[in-house]
Amino acid sequence: MTKTTYDCSKCPGYCCAYPVITVTKRDIERIARHLALSPEQAEAKFCRKDHGYKRIIRRKTDEHFGRICRFFDSGNRNCSIYKARPAACRNYPGEGRCGYYDFLTFERSGQKDEDYIATTWHNED
Ligand code: SF4
Ligand code: SF4
Asked: Residue 114's Cα: distance from chain center in Å?
């Protein structure tokens, strides 16, 4: 099993600010159950059709990244529906490393500031 080298609890949730987070039919059914809504209610409230996808998560304003997932808990900087989150979120970043987290750790160490938040990051690979 690949060793995980990132810690989402120490991250401001950069990946939750991605503009396109897809939601499958199964995802919306699970989220609806979690929130005691019908799938239709959940879809209308939390999803929209855009970027060529049938369902992506609606966003809201965010103090650090400008816009972020509608389900993001801005106070605790984590997912408010963690147990019911979409498959796309469960599968991310996938290979045991998170490029943003590597960058964040590097910057926090260099700036000697454990709370530093990088609002932009570009994968140079
Ligand atoms: S950007 Fe990386 S470390 Fe931060 S929440 Fe997402 S997966 Fe976790
Ligand atoms: S559903 Fe949760 S994990 Fe997925 S993008 Fe939104 S806040 Fe992040």
From this structure: 21
CA–CA dist 45, 61 (Å, integer): 16
Q: Ligand 1 pocket: which residues have CB below 6 Å?
A: 6, 8, 11, 13-15, 92-93, 98, 100-101
State whether the beta carbon of 69 lies less than 6 angstroms from ligand 2.
yes
Decide: 56 and 21 in contact? Cβ < 8 Å.
Answer: yes
Where do the domains of the chain lie? 16-94
Q: Whose CA is nearest to atom 8 of ligand 1?
A: 8
Q: Phi first, then psi: give them for residue 106, nearest 5 degrees.
A: -60, -45
Helix (H, G, I), strand (E, B) or coil at 39: helix
Decide whether any atom of ligand 2 lies within 6 Å of the 72 Cβ: yes
The predicted-structure confidence for 92-122, as pLDDT tens digits, reads as follows 998 889 999 999 999 999 999 999 999 988 7
Q: Record the pTM.
A: 0.93
